[in-house]
Design the sequence.
């Protein structure tokens, strides 16, 4: 959190602190990502850190979200990396295919 990394990373990388945008669930996060794509058509890499923390530790909705992001990324030609702080055995089956 904070702006420190904003100034420490390469100028071609955009760091967005999602907590500034009141994102609390997967629907809001998907809309936020769609907005990023709408404003920046040339996104090649998308990294989401701590998705469960951002989306209130909702494991049940994670699989559907990942499927939607997979579709967005395929259309845009973007590589997506998402960190999930949970044990693999605790993840729903629809999430495990992304490990």
Sequence:
């Amino acid at each position: 959190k904070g702006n420190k990394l904003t100034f420490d990373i390469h100028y071609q990388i955009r760091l967005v602190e999602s907590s500034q945008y009141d994102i609390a669930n997967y629907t809001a996060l998907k809309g936020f990502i769609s907005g990023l794509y709408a404003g920046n058509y040339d996104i090649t890499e998308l990294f989401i850190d701590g998705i469960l923390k951002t989306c209130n530790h909702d494991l049940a909705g994670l699989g559907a979200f990942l499927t939607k992001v997979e579709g967005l990324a395929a259309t845009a030609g973007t590589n997506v990396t998402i960190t999930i702080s949970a044990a693999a055995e605790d993840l729903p089956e629809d999430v495990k295919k992304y490990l």
